[in-house]
Amino acid sequence: MLRTRHERLGLLILLALTGFPRLAVAGTTVVAGNCMNNFPHFPTIQAAVNAVPALGTVLVCPGNYPEQVVIAQPLNLNGVASGGANDAVITSPPGGVAQTFGPYSPQLLVTNATAVNITNIAVDGANNGISACATLFVGILYSNSSGTINKVAARNQNLPGLPICGSGWGIRVIASVPQSSTVTVENSSVRAWQFEGIRGRGDGVTMTIKNNYVSGFIPNHQPANAIDLNAGATGSITGNSIADAIWADNVFPDFGDATWGILLECVQGVIVSGNTIANTQGGIVLDNFFCSSFPNAPNTDSNVVSSNKIFNTQLYDAVYVCGNNNTVKGNTIQGAGESGIKLDNSCDAGPSGSNNTITSNTINESCAGILINPATFGNSVSGNASTNVGSTTLAGTLCGPLFGDPPGLPTGLIKPLDN
Fold first, then answer.
1. How far apart are CA 253 and CA 374, in angstroms?
2. Residue 85: pLDDT above 80?
3. How far apart are the C-alpha atoms of 252 and 258, rounded to whole Å?
4. Parallel, antiparallel, or unpaired: how do β-strands 380-382 and 357-359 relate?
5. Which of 173, 235, 293, 386 lies in disulfide reach of 363, CB 3.0 to 4.6 Å?
6. How far lies 200's CA from each of 41, 215, 413, in Å?
7. Cα-to-chain-centroid distance, residue 361
């Protein structure tokens, strides 16, 4: 037995000099695949996850892993970067992605666990084999869990050949009080999703969504959103780049059935700042369409939309506000299909689109710089600069290519409400 501090220190120095494996000290690192020979190896990610103790690390070697992974304890899941195209990729199993968690078919599920951090992993949903809208397909799903998703690629979570339905997310986080999920998604790529790129849903959810690239372009895209916080979720959406979220079949003025860059629905206190949004049908949308369907969810009030760059919103508004006491300030808007900023009250039966602050925004090229539904009230509009617009400020509910307010147009559909 080593009785003195000096004896223990001497042994540690000897182990370091002889290259003794770290596993002998802690035993908290295992490997999926064939690399990193100093650690125990497992043929699949799931086998490695099952073997590692809580708070341990699973290193995933470069290669494809056709499996569905479930994590139910705190751990780090880290891809070993090769610097090439053959990094660690979770792919669809040969028989397709199965429905394994209630109505969900997740490729990577984190359930009832804290401190689950995923880094340098790709999740590819191609060849998922899902043939029914009732199956909710997700690349990465956190349920009542917390952690960080960093430098991850979620792609091809789409459903070729299926009609419009609320399914197909790159990353989704869910929780309802008294449960909770606190998740950061950062420095990641989310593309070719069917319904939404990144979503946080439920009054137990707090998300930090920052510095990601979210692109929705797929041939059969449906009405969707690139990033969505709803049903009482809270957090921040900052520094993201969003592009190519278009439903090609949409016809003006079917705004509710269009594809949007960022959606805040039935949430409060969310910060949306410093994002760049290009080539969508709506840029940033704040609405209350489904709040009555969400138990304990607030109206979309008291959020801040600031310092975003929004351009080429095809058909519709760059910023749409159907909520109260929100702040829209310092945004740069170029080429809005309808208005630069719209204040509206048509998304619920109660007062909406009122007592908002719209200030210091720069708007170039739209049918109206700011479009205000006459049924709203108490809005503070000041210090905005509009150029190449039909009207700087227009009272109305719609404006289009003729810079008018066409009467009697249908309201259109609303995006499908999923579970």
1. 18
2. no
3. 9
4. parallel
5. 386
6. 35, 17, 23
7. 25
Does the reported pTM lie above 0.85? Answer: yes
Q: What are phi and psi of 34, to 5 degrees?
A: -120, 90
CA dihedral (132, 138, 144, 145) in degrees, to 10, reads 160
Give dist(CA 325, CA 205) in Å, integer: 22
**Residues 144-171 pLDDT 10s:** 999 999 999 999 999 887 777 889 999 9
The predicted-structure confidence for 222-264, as pLDDT tens digits, reads as follows: 788 999 999 999 999 999 999 988 887 888 888 888 889 999 9
Q: Which residues pair with 9 in a beta bridge?
A: none
Q: Residue 70, Cβ neighbours under 10 Å: how many?
A: 18
∠ CA 120-125-127, nearest 5°, is 140
Q: Where are the domains of the chain?
A: 105-395
Strands 205-210 and 234-238: parallel
- Dihedral angle over CA of 403, 407, 410, 412, nearest 10: 30
Least confident of 1-5, 42-46, 309-313, 374-378: 1-5
- For the stretch 332-360, pLDDT in tens is 999 998 999 999 998 877 789 999 999 99
Confidence class for position 28, pLDDT limits 50, 70, 90 = very high
CB-CB contact of 235 with 229 (8 Å):
yes
Place of tokens 């009405």: 223
What backbone torsions phi and psi does residue 127 show, to the nearest 5 degrees?
Answer: 60, 40
What is the rounded average pLDDT of the residues 105-132? 97
- What topology is assigned to 105-395 in CATH? Pectate Lyase C-like (2.160.20)
Strand-strand pairing, 332-336 and 362-372: parallel
Helix, strand, or coil (residue 78): strand
